[in-house]
Amino acid sequence: MNLADELALAIRLADAADAVSLAGFNARTFTVERKADKSEVTEIDRATETAITNILLAERPSHSVYGEEHGIVGPSDAKFQWVIDPIDGTSNFVHGVPVWASLIALVENNVPVLSVVSAPALQMRWWAYVGGGAFYNSSPIRVSKVDTLRRASLSITANKGWDALGATPALTQLQQDVSRVRGYGDFWQHMLVAQGAVDVAIDSIGLAPYDIAALVPIVQEAGGKFSDRIGTPDWRANSLITSNSLLHDAILAYLPK
Ligand code: IPD
Ligand code: CA
Ligand code: CA
Predict the structure, then answer these.
(1) What is the CATH number of the domain that holds 78?
(2) pTM of the full structure
(3) 69 CB under 6 A from ligand 1?
(4) Is 8 in the same domain as 124?
């Protein structure tokens, strides 16, 4: 497996995704449906995933695809799997907020080794593969060097899942203990960690593997760290903390085990 070749393919997948998703976002004629879990979905989510999948079926028939909207396509015993969230931030997409992205990851033997996160309405794109460094709009990126919480910038998505864990008081305390708190949301907060603009990002409880897979190579190649709320680096977990590495343990110490 030549990851540089796979990156070239992944960039083409992102271009194909952007063509569908950005046209749909700008036209604003899509219909919004509710999934079983009550979350919003549009025909643009499905069409964007189809655009990506069609290229992969033609060019990588031995690989499988695991997407949010269409599930698993291709050989069930594939060594390589592309894990896709066609539109991460659908609620933003629906409401006209430009913070949404296509998340495209290549997973080898259960390890995310390459990814592209493409946010065309922001004109932002991030990518990385293992050993190749992480990039934002073609420039190399690196996490910050902030090593104390009192100087740290935190982005957080505190949802009902955190409340159900009894974590709201601890998260409130954490927000008082850092220097700055914002909620950039979805993929964006984790990409801001990777490029050193934010020091720590805490996502909501209830994530799926396709919410996380593509974020992992970019954060890690930029020198950052990811884990679930317990501290396990599992991209199939339902929670996600990313950090500049230096602050990771200090953040985990606030969270319920
Ligand atoms: C959402 C994003 C968000 C997370 C939500 C997800 P979607 O994905 O990943 O960061 O907090 O739980 O549902 O539905 O916009 O792809
Ligand atoms: Ca998502
Ligand atoms: Ca999605």
Answers:
(1) 3.30.540.10
(2) 0.98
(3) no
(4) yes
